[in-house]
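[Q] Does anyone have a clean structure-token version of this?
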Amino acid sequence: MLDEFKANSEPASRKLDCFAIAPKIAMAYKMKKMRGQLRKIKEDHESFKFTHDNSGLIDVHQLPDPRETTSNVIESLIIGRDKDRMNVLSLLSTSNNNKEHITVLPICGLGGIGKSTLAQLVFNDTQFKDYNHRVWVYVSQVFDLKKIGNSIISQVLGKGSQNLDTRELIDQRLKDLLQDKKTLIVLDDIWETDNFQLDQLKLMLNVGSKLKVLVTTRSKDIARKMCTVGVQPYLLDPLDNDMCWRIIKQNSGFESRVDKGQAEPVGQIIARKCGGLPLAAQALGFLLSGMDLSDWKAMCNNDIWDEPFSDSTVLPSLKLTYNTLTPYLRLCFAYCGIFPKGHNINKDDLIHQWIALGFIEPSNNFSAIQLAEKYIRQFMGMSFLQHSKLRTELPKIIPKTIFTMHDLVHDLARSIITEELVVFDAKRASSTRRKEYCCYASLTNYNTTDYNKARKMSTIFPSKLRAMHFFNSEIHGGVFSFPKCLRVLDLSGCSITEFPSALGQVKQLEVLIAPNLEDRQFPESITQFSKLHYLNLSGSDKISAIPSSIGKLESLAYLDLSYCTSVEVIPEAFGSLKNLQTIDLTWCEKLESLPESLGSLKNLQTLDLARCKKLESLPESLGSLKNLRTLNLLYCWQLKSLPESLGRLENLQTLDLSECMKLVCLPESFGSLKNLQTLDLTWCWKLKPLPKSLGSLTNLRSLDLTHCWVIESLPETLGSLKNLQTLNLRGCNKLEYLPESLGSLKNLQTLDIGGCSKLEYLPESLENLVGNLKIIGSWKPKNHWKRLRLWMREHQVLATVSTTTHQSPDGT
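[A] Here you go.
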């Protein structure tokens, strides 16, 4: 009702007519009706004398857990994990270099992927047969330190359950029993995220170097927290399709079939739908058992693959993870079910949809964007979201962060959102029944060229829809009628030759995703969306100009014009976008300049100009962007200089000038960038000596000067960069010496001098960095490494030296 109220709350015209008054009368009637319903609920509550009763609640600690595991396993039935077992055994045997502390190795992966099974294989391996003790503890979602400790003590003693009631008694008993004893402990299925609790667990188990602990968890975050020094979590990958097919054969009685030759290719197709999860393959195997070939084919072609599992044992397993989420996280995750299976999800698009739909509320300490980023990290940690392979397969979108969802995770999201989601596929007999209560719509294979069908379809969707997504569809002109309360419109799966004029009636639109527009003109109707805060037109390579009317979008916070390769001019009206926080102009390769009005964007935090190959200069007004944190000028080939005003960007944290091949010098004001943390000058071939003011960048952590061929020396002030961790000088083949002040860089961890063919010695001050510094070299000029090694041995400087041999450009 609130959305509908906002949609109809446009400024009244001076001339009131019945058409203007009618919506207000209807709204008043609806509000009156709702008040009556609320009053009736209150009266029923009082008349029936309802009270809050806790007597029926059962302590969660007392509930039996049907997922509880044991150490028992029938190895002959386990398929596809031999290599993983050997890897884990190797890590356990080599990881403990510290003679005083335990080894904790976590196994991390998606629910149903086989973490517990792998732990069982390791637990029962002959490598541990001579151990004094082997202990298996199922931890579960109810994390209880005392229960874990008592369980270990009970198994070591071989007696009934122990009930020591204080941590002091438990810790002392564990020390008495396990100190100097070779012991393997498996802690299966840890969900606890609290740092203090996990630290206390490790402290309780820290009874000597002979103790090895194997942990299984779905959360990468928990895995990282549980790791001991020198150990990395073991990330368990999905099985390949052949292994899934072997599991299906094993569980379906395949070998006893008389039609194996005909059934095998069908079964292999089904195996590919398991997503690499052995639990899914096992469930499908049981399902296929006893079915004839026609049933197998029907299963292979069934629409079930596009819909949530209803009876699978995998979905409840994943739903346990979902149930641990906070309400806001649940909303954000469930919304991901609006995308089709296998869809590649743009991170920025997703975050701003969450915000527009009210799923994320900013707090006093964090903005909505920061909270959304945190949610993304949590979903990644639980494997609910995964990085898409698309990022490496299609270089054009390398700068974007793209996610995908495992099929079974998608099933979970879709099962949760299904009652609020209208799903329509024009190529299938999808139900077109109107659902008034639905808030979201997903349309596939939709085509508005059929006028009558398009008009009919637009009346079927609920008037209160808040988000619509189109996939593999075509939209032309003004045929389709959009709901007035719409807040999110995703046209990324559309071929659009003419922008829908009917969108002008959608006054509440906040997010518009319409990449790859085929219009030659920027759609003027977009500028009518006064509440629009996110606009993505990336890849619209036929648009040559941005109209001045874009300045009307006063609420706009994020503008993506990346890969709009024909855009030549940005209008001065850009300066009217006072709320703009991010501008992405990546690969606008015909753009030659930016307007002076750019300096009016006081809230701008990110300016991405990567691969603007014709951009020759930046406006002096750039220095007025006091909130700018990221400036990307990668591959701006024609950029010759930077404005002196650059030094006024007091909040700038990341500056990428890599491959600015005509850049000759940095302004002296550069030293005023007090908050700069990352500076990339890779392949700046013509860059002259760095300014002395560089030493004022006291927060700098990474300085990359790879292939800066003209640089012969570094300023002595370099030693003032107290927070510098990485210094990359690879390929600086005219660099003859390094400043003595380098030894003052107490936090320096990596120094790359590969290809510095004229560098004959290192400063003696580097001996101050013994034990911390890793020096890397990858070219091998004559006698170069011999001289360096002699120097290193003489001064005992290095902790690590990597000298992988490659040839320099001249072949030496």
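[Q] Thanks! Anything notable?
[A] The chain has a mean pLDDT of 83.
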